[in-house]
Structures are given as structure tokens and as C-alpha cells.
Fold this protein.
Amino acid sequence: MDSRAFSQVVGTTVTTIVLGLMVQPARAVTHDFNDFVGSDAGGGTPLDGQGGWTAESFNTPGELGVTETLGFDGTPALRFIFGGANVGADASLLNDAALAIPDFLGSETDAYLQADLTLGFWGNRLALAHDRNGNGRSRSYEVGEIGPSIEIGGNPAIGVGLRDADGVRTMVPLATLTDSGGEWLRLRLLMDVTANGGQGVGSLYFQDLERGDPDLQLVPGLENIDLRLDPGADDARNPQHWDGLWLHHEGHTNETDNIVVERFLVPSPIPLPSWLRVALAALLAVLAVGMLRRS
């Protein structure tokens, strides 16, 4: 091996070592509810208490349930069938109860929140969340606990959209994407939490599963929306505080399945510890001596 080739080997070796230490691997968590106890009768088997989830209903004795085979893929899914004025249900899963979501470091440039949802009239919401008050749950009525969310509903006033970390909603009419009425849809909120001066941006993607859409497609009008994140906040506006999932079903009939949270990182300029700097220096010295001997 000549000196030029050897120097290339040295450079490649050191670069591989350093980047291997500096790049955080992608992490993904999926919730498909396939191990939950479900029933297709009525509203299903209550979700509350299964797999670390907590759930509560509003203005109805009916509960958010788990079905057995009613998911789009014939597997269990979450379902809420009760209607009426201000009738709905909240549910959340936190990392201290189970692995709800990957740990976010605030340097993610390519992370997403995704779920399969059915299209009820008053709609579904799903969000990244933070148990700010430490009571073991996240709820919409508890201040500062709901982060960026995706939302869809057959009501023309809801449509399809996303809400930023302040709860401000940006939506487009659902009719531009699909027919309204019960079908399974996949939504993905793609986020760069470092963009926009740390306030982050998000873009929403959409796939009609029952229509057979082959891929996710960008929702026109919902690209690079300001997420209004705040890296210095002590609430769900700060991605480093995200520690769970929150969802809400408003009225009947809404269903949720196959929730996915995934994050990717680019190489981050973390300082190398002193022992590693010494080890790398020694490695470079050994490789340099070998290169001189071969020159």
C-alpha cells in the first residue's frame, strides 16, 4: 500500500470512529395494540389500565375501548362510539409507565408522529405530550401538557390539520384529499425541531388506506408550519420534555391504530471526553508511524 492509499485508510478509520460516537441512531416506537385485550362488541374492552395507558371520558359513562379485529389490518385498534354534546375521551401513555416515545434531545431534524385514524365527524387528535404536573397522565385540560398534534374530522370546520405547541390550528378542507365518512386514513407529521430559530417546523402527510393510496403525500397548504416550540420552556413546547403520547376522540365513531414515533439526528458537535481524545491521538500516532514505514 502506497502512502496515499494508506493516508486514505487513516482518514476513513478515524472518521468512522468519531462519527460512530457522535451520531445518535434513529429510534422508533410503535403502538399497534395487538397485545391488548379487545372485543368487537359495543365499544370494545376499556383501554384504561392496559399497557400503561390511562383514559377518561367526558359527559358519558361510555369508555374509550379496544376492539379485537376492527383495525384496518384486521387487528385490535382503539375505538370510541359515544356521541352527544361535548362527549369525548382523552387517553395518554407516559414513558414511566411504558416506552411511549423515544427520548428527544432537541436536535432532531427529521422526526415524525404518525397514526392510522378513522374519520369521525368531530374528529381525532394525537399529540406528543409532557406530564408537566407529574400526576401520571397528560390531559388537554392540564396546562402546558400537549405538544404538536395531528387532527382530522369529517366536520368541515375541522378538516385535516395540525396544531402547534400553543394549540393554534392550521387546517385545510378534507374534501381536497378524500371522501368523508369512516375510512381509515394515515397521517404523518414530519418535524424539524431545530428549524425556525428553535421554534421548529412541521409538514403533514396523508394516505387514504382504504382507497389504496400507494404512498404518503404532502397535504397542500400544510408544509413548513411554525410549531411554536420553545427549547427553554418547562412544558410541552420544549421537545426535550416530551415524555408521552396524548390522544382525543370527540364523538362517534373514531378509531386509532398503529401509532409510530420516530426520530433521526444529524451528527452533533458534542465534546469528546479526555480519555477518548488520548486514545484517538495514540491511534493516529500508530497509523502515522505505519505510514512513514510504508513511504
User: Anything to note?
Assistant: The two ends are 9 Å apart (CA to CA). Residues 125 and 253 are 13 Å apart (CA to CA). The longest strand covers residues 254-263. DSSP finds two helices and 17 strands in the chain.
